[in-house]
């Protein structure tokens, strides 16, 4: 095969060669206003030196905040200047320079131990402040306030405060999100609500290289530099107004080694990247109006590809991270647009107004994020993963070893006991492997009843026994929804187990169970997962199914906060939308972890040992929720701390009358063959004999590596390393790997390069440094660090390569 040489670069730019208190600082600007700060208990050393070497013609002040124990010390340089004042905060391996106009730079050290620029950005200032207010700084002992005893506080008069902490310990009431970080800073930005509707920090995208992580999208491009992601609400959707899908986590890594992590509990968190800045012909930003479920079927699939949207003249080139006063936006309409929490996380003096009747007015807005500079993208990824909770158990090894089979795409709502048993016999007779039979939609009497419809399933216990005898585990599709005609609704309503809403403007204090539309009919109410009694009631009914019929587990669907009534009212007030998701996964699905269950969403639930399925795929080839989106989505799952990724149904869900043909079905099987788990619904023998034969061939390849998959799964309890990894994981300094979206690595020693383009029978494959062999040509050594061009990849072939270690060579 021909070859193109790889290119290795240090992908960040090399470095170039009187402290005072803010006058009249406002109490409203932050909890760190001057008269609220306890006296500093840290040692500050101050000396004024000439700054001619800097060429700034000013006096430079230097301070040092001494660290204690294992904590890093911070060093501060301050250069006041009428035009260009700046403050620089340094720790052992990184430094952050903040200028008086809000611009900042983060510098770190690359693998060659040379100081390089990791990213640049802006602490957004109100228009009346930017460039016209001199910044000042002070040290504070914030131990009493839950902060670090060595902290730098930067102010722009009484408008904006930036608190800079060393990494390593959490800060504030939700500080665990940043524990264990090194090589950077924790930034907390505050702004008075008298001066702004939001607080924002922006990071220049190109300055940090190639971006990864953040979320599942409907249009899952890789790397994220390729998207034009409109700024919008950041919580899980099934098809959100800016393209967000079922799994989100505000943590990003880049090829420069940058790690950006945002407090996941930030109220009214909004994020966007490289969003539209100007539109052609003077057009304005389009209205994004989103409902739930099938209401969004005709909405555009977002985010757009940067440069591909004909309406957009210019993108802004920044990652925007915002904490807003609310979700109100005249251009983005969604379920939570007009919601306000009862508890305001950043209010001073208490979370509710006197009497507890409503929220107390917040007097400042806050955004908290970590900026860390590591030597490469793999190190920043591992640093991010180390902050996350780890699962104590793994899913049942049976579902990692052999495929799940589900009735959904094959039968949709028309599933019956007879069809399930016939399907199971077909699977067994086919010779293909199997682990679980998942019985999907409309097995219940009514949604929420959690009992078999006797007309469709006359002998469910007998059915389950037959499936067990054939070697299947059996799971049922469940979701936190209940329809009005069900017996469960009557019982749950009397006990207050459902999310409520005010159903009449004429009676604002009259709360009723809140019905809403979803992807099926009829409308439903949602389980109130903030109510422990409601959770116990729901879980006990699932246990009843296990005890009565022998059910082994459940497919937990839904749980995204978009599937709630508008302005939801819960037993315990939600502080942010994703809290509902967290409780659904943790308190309901989590009761069954370690088994054969699956969920499709999550929020701070990396420690739940359960399969996390990606959202429903279309039976198409493209990145817009089709085959090409599978690899980037599963890789993103791993980077967000969800290694037990379950790719969706092989061949897609056959929505909108689109069914996979032989080529799409076979290529889809090959993509999934060496991923953590597999799931079939449309039977390959219903596609055709060729499809069945080639699927069998792919399954034989999986058998060779099942031991590797199970071994990698076992490591997750210690390190949370992804089971399948981006190509850059193997050689993070090799820039040729950063844009590869159609290959992945199983562990560190297997490279998988499936074909994901219709009609393609050859493809280029990139192998990182080292010695490799094609699994189809054992013994032939291939030198890595190069592209292998035009490799044969007929429909029967899944190109795979194994690393040859030195002792084997």
Q: Would you kindly provide a written description of the structure presented here, covering whatever features stand out?
A:
The protein is α+β, with helices and mostly antiparallel strands and 809 residues long. Helix content is 17%, strand content 27%. It has 12 helices and 46 strands. The strands form 10 sheets. Strands 2, 3, 4, 5, 6, 7, 8, 9, 14, 16, 19, 22 and 24 form a 13-stranded antiparallel β-sheet that branches. The protein has an 8-stranded antiparallel β-sheet with strand order 10-11-12-13-26-18-17-15. The radius of gyration is 28 Å and the shape is globular. The two termini are 21 Å apart. The model is unreliable at 1-5, 13-60, 66-70, 141-149 and 345-361 (pLDDT under 50).
Structural class: alpha+beta
How much of the sequence lies in strands comes to 25-35%
What does the radius of gyration come to? Answer: 28 Å
In DSSP terms (H or I, runs of 4 or more residues), the helix count works out at: 12
The coarse silhouette is globular
The largest β sheet comes out as: 13 strands, antiparallel
Helicity level = 10-25%
Query: What is the overall pLDDT average?
Result: 86
Distance between the termini: 21 Å
> How many individual β-strands?
46
Weakly predicted, low-confidence segments: 1-5, 13-60, 66-70, 141-149, 345-361
Question: How are the secondary structure elements laid out?
Answer:
Layout: E1 2-5, E2 13-14, E3 47-50, E4 59-65, E5 74-79, E6 86-90, E7 95-99, E8 103-109, E9 115-123, E10 135-140, E11 151-156, E12 160-165, E13 184-192, E14 198-204, E15 211-217, E16 227-233, E17 244-254, E18 258-262, E19 269-273, E20 276-279, E21 288-289, E22 304-305, E23 312-315, E24 318-324, E25 332-333, E26 364-373, H1 377-386, H2 397-401, E27 404-406, H3 408-411, H4 417-430, E28 436-439, H5 460-470, E29 473-478, E30 481-483, H6 487-495, E31 500-502, E32 511-513, E33 524-526, H7 532-549, E34 553-556, H8 578-588, E35 598-599, E36 611-613, H9 630-639, E37 645-646, H10 662-672, E38 679-680, H11 684-687, H12 689-719, E39 724-725, E40 744-746, E41 750-752, E42 762-767, E43 771-774, E44 782-783, E45 786-792, E46 800-804
Parallel strand pairs: 21-25, 27-28, 27-38, 28-29, 29-34, 35-36, 36-37
Antiparallel strand pairs: 1-45, 2-9, 3-4, 4-5, 5-6, 6-7, 7-8, 8-9, 9-14, 10-11, 11-12, 12-13, 13-26, 14-24, 15-17, 16-19, 16-22, 17-18, 18-26, 19-24, 20-23, 30-33, 31-32, 39-40, 40-41, 41-46, 42-45, 43-44, 43-46
Helix pairs in contact: 4-5, 10-12
């Amino acid at each position: 095969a021909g070859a193109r040489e790889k290119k290795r670069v240090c992908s960040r730019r090399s470095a170039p060669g009187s402290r005072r208190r803010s006058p009249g600082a406002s109490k409203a600007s932050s909890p760190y206003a001057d008269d609220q700060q306890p006296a500093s208990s840290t040692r500050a050393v101050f000396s004024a030196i000439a700054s001619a070497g800097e060429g700034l013609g000013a006096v430079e002040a230097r301070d040092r905040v001494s660290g204690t124990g294992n904590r890093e010390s911070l060093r501060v340089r301050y250069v006041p200047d009428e035009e260009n004042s700046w403050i620089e905060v340094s720790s052992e391996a990184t430094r952050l320079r903040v200028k008086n106009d809000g611009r900042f730079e983060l510098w770190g050290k690359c693998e060659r131990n040379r100081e390089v620029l990791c990213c640049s950005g802006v602490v957004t200032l109100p228009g009346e402040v930017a460039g016209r207010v001199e910044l000042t700084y002070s040290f504070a002992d914030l131990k009493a306030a839950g902060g670090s005893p060595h902290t730098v506080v930067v102010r722009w008069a009484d408008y904006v405060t930036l608190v800079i902490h060393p990494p390593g310990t959490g800060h504030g009431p939700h500080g665990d999100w940043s524990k264990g970080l090194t090589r950077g800073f924790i930034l907390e930005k505050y702004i008075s609500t008298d001066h702004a509707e939001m607080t924002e920090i922006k990071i220049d995208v190109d300055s940090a290289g190639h971006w990864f992580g953040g979320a599942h999208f409907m249009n899952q491009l890789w790397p994220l530099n390729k998207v034009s992601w409109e700024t919008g609400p950041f919580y899980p959707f099934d098809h959100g107004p800016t393209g967000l899908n079922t799994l989100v986590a505000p943590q990003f890594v880049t090829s420069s080694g940058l790690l950006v992590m945002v407090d996941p509990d930030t109220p009214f968190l909004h994020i966007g990247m490289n969003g539209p800045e100007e539109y052609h012909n003077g057009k304005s930003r389009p209205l994004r109006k989103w409902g739930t479920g099938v209401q969004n079927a005709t909405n555009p699939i977002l985010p757009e590809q940067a440069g591909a949207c004909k309406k957009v003249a210019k993108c802004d080139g920044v990652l925007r991270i915002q904490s807003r006063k609310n979700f109100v936006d005249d251009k983005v309409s969604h379920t939570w647009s007009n919601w306000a929490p009862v508890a305001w996380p950043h209010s001073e003096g208490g979370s509710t107004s006197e009497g507890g009747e409503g929220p107390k007015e917040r007097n400042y807005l806050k955004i908290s994020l970590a900026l860390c500079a590591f030597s490469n993208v793999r190190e920043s990824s591992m640093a991010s993963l180390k902050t996350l909770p780890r699962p104590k158990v793994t899913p049942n090894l049976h579902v990692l070893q052999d495929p799940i089979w589900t009735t959904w795409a094959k039968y949709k709502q028309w599933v019956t006991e007879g069809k399930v048993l016939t399907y199971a016999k077909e699977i067994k007779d086919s010779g293909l492997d199997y682990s679980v039979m998942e019985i999907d939609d409309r097995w219940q009497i009514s949604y929420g009843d959690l009992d078999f419809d006797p007309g469709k399933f006359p002998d469910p216990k007998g059915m389950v026994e037959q499936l067990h005898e054939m070697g299947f585990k059996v799971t049922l599709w469940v979701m936190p929804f209940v329809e009005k005609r069900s017996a469960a609704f009557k019982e749950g309503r009397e006990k207050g187990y459902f999310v409520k809403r005010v159903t009449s403007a004429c009676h604002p204090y009259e709360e009723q169970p809140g019905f809403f539309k979803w992807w099926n009919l009829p409308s439903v109410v949602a389980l109130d997962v903030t109510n422990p009694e409601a959770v116990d009631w729901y879980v006990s009914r699932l246990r009843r199914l296990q005890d009565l019929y022998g059910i082994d587990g459940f497919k937990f669907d839904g749980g995204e906060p978009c599937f709630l009534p508008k302005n939801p009212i819960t037993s315990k007030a939600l502080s942010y939308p994703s809290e509902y998701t967290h409780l659904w996964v943790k308190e309901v699905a989590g009761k069954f972890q370690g088994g054969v269950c699956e969920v499709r969403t999550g929020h701070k639930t990396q420690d739940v040992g359960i399969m996390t399925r990606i959202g429903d795929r279309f039976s198409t080839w493209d990145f817009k929720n089709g085959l090409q989106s599978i690899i980037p989505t599963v890789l993103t799952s791993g980077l967000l701390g969800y290694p037990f990724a379950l790719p969706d149904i092989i061949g897609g869900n056959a929505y909108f009358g689109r069914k996979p043909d032989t080529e799409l079905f076979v290529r889809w099987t090959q993509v999934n063959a060496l991923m953590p788990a597999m799931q079939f619904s449309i039977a390959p023998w219903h596609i055709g004999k060729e499809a069945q034969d080639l699927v069998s061939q792919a399954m034989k390849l999986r058998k060779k590596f099942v031991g590797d998959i199970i071994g990698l799964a076992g490591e997750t309890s210690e390190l949370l390393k992804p089971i399948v990894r981006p190509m850059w994981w193997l050689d993070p300094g090799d820039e040729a790997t950063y844009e590869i979206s159609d290959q992945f690595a199983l562990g560190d020693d297997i490279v998988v390069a499936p074909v994901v383009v219709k009609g393609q029978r050859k493809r280029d494959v990139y192998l990182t440094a080292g010695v490799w062999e094609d699994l189809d040509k054992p013994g032939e050594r291939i030198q890595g660090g190069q592209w292998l061009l035009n490799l044969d990849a007929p429909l029967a072939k899944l190109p795979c390569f194994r690393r040859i270690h030195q002792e084997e060579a």
